[in-house]
Amino acid sequence: MSAATAPVDATADGLRSDDLLRVEAVDGGHGSTAVLFGVSLGVPRNGLCCLMGRNGVGKSTVLQTIVGLLKARRGRVIFDGQDITKLRPYDRARAGIAFVPQGRDCFPQLTVMENMRVVQEARRDLPRSGIDDALDLFPRLKDLLDRPAGFLSGGQMQQLAIARALVTQPKLLLLDEPTEGIQPSIILEIEDAIAQLKRTAGLSILLVEQYVDFALRLAERYAVMDGGRVVDAGDTAGLEDGHVRRLLAV
Ligand SMILES: Nc1ncnc2c1ncn2[C@@H]1O[C@H](COP(=O)(O)OP(=O)(O)OP(=O)(O)O)[C@@H](O)[C@H]1O
Question: Where do the ABC transporter domain residues begin and end (predicted)?
């Protein structure tokens, strides 16, 4: 059996056999630059895993590898029981994975509503209620539907980016640093929205976040990276106060 298909110890790195997403011993990177070395992590069904680590340790690279923008050179990505390691990004999206990248990726010239419609038009298989459901989660956006996204504040833009991703009614949402550059009152709104998503939409979430308190309040599972490797992972329940902070040397 090759290394790429060898079964991974279900107890290592906080992985569980019933996780919605399992990243198993993945090596990856950008072009010829190796960044990830044997990364394993799991996202529980209807739960949230926060992925933490200092700048440049490879967190965004993990997300890009999960959605297929970057290739895994070794290891596997298993989603909802299916090996998606070789699937194209479009097919991973159709399988139910939505990604909100760090730059938030909205079209600045299009209005809030147009940004959401673009997603719906691209995916005619989606239920028409997707936009209304996403807006219910972020009521502030309802007053801004005709505003070009380029004129939104950072917090409003982040809310739009998450709302757009939700239009696809995903099973798994990948969020890359949603609090970055956002004022504290809006961070609380985003935290409420994520908590509500878990409660009512039964969504699973992989959250990359440097704001440790925010991440740990929302998470059932955590993983900490350093130098392209997962150096600690597990359940947040019973986690000793300050454990993660010491690992991050904050
Ligand atoms: N397009 C790219 N080409 C080559 N190297 C890259 C590219 N993007 C990122 N890297 C490198 O990959 C490594 C990991 O970057 P990555 O963005 O995944 O880290 P991160 O943990 O998400 O950091 P941050 O919190 O700053 O976003 C870094 O050394 C970075 O310089």
Answer: 15-250
